[in-house]
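Everyone, describe these structure tokens:
***
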Amino acid sequence: MSDDRNVRVAALVIISDAVDVEALTAAVGVPPDRSLGKGKVRPGSTLPFPAKEHSWEIRESGRRSVAISEVIERLLCRAIPLRNAIMGVKKSGCEVKLKIIQWISDDDPHGPGFSLDGNALKFLADVGAFVDVDQYLE
């Protein structure tokens, strides 16, 4: 695989059946990098199914030369200051997840692993987030 596309992604995603993207944005206090309203289809989607819920996310990405741990760290630098706001939306019935996507190949300079330090784990626990990891072999 060439190094011209992002092969590492870390995103903090807030999902809600009832709270729409505009209300999530107002509650969190920052605009999302990506969002999708319930019933909408993501532009450019290969599977044009309407979303079952509202989603708000901030994300960081990197090419092969960047370790997934670095991408996660950049995301958490943005997310941790939002801890109290995210805890508030969690109380309104929203789900919170840390989504990690990593493409791996034999010549990957960093390998398949990543780590989360105590501050990251505390943040994820405080906001009630679950971790969703997708790793793909090329």
